[in-house]
Amino acid sequence: MRIAECLVGDETGTILFTARNSQVDLMKADGTVILRNAKIDMFKGSMRLAVDKWGRVEVTEPANFVVKEYNNLSLVEYELVNVVEE
Predict the structure, then answer these.
(1) Which of 5, 7, 11, 28 could form a disulfide with 65 if both were Cys (CB 3.0 to 4.6 A apart)?
(2) CA-based nearest residue to 54, from 74, 35, 28, 41
């Protein structure tokens, strides 16, 4: 199994994408991809984007938007808090 973490983004922000196996070959620096049926996985309190067997990674033509690089959602730490109702 091959795994690579790639920073992907759009006009709203960026997030780390965990590419697996054949997905690794599709991810190129400054390339444009479409991630279909992607999901969020939590890893050590941070969000990671992933595409499993139900999704698809497609290489496409360059996009015409500016990536909002300063809004990296993977840098936000989350903590699971249990709420006890009384």
Answers:
(1) 11
(2) 35
SS3 40: strand
Q: Are 32 and 57 in contact, with CB atoms under 8 Å apart?
A: no
Q: What is the pTM of this model?
A: 0.84
- For the cut 90, the answer to whether the pLDDT of residue 3 exceeds it is yes
Q: Looking at this protein, which amino acid is placed at residue 66?
A: V
Cβ-Cβ contacts under 8 Å for 22 (sequence gap 6 or more): none
| Secondary structure letter of residue 61 according to DSSP | S
pLDDT in tens, 24-61: 999 999 899 999 999 999 999 999 999 999 999 999 99
The residues pairing with 4 across neighbouring beta strands, listed in sequence order, are 19
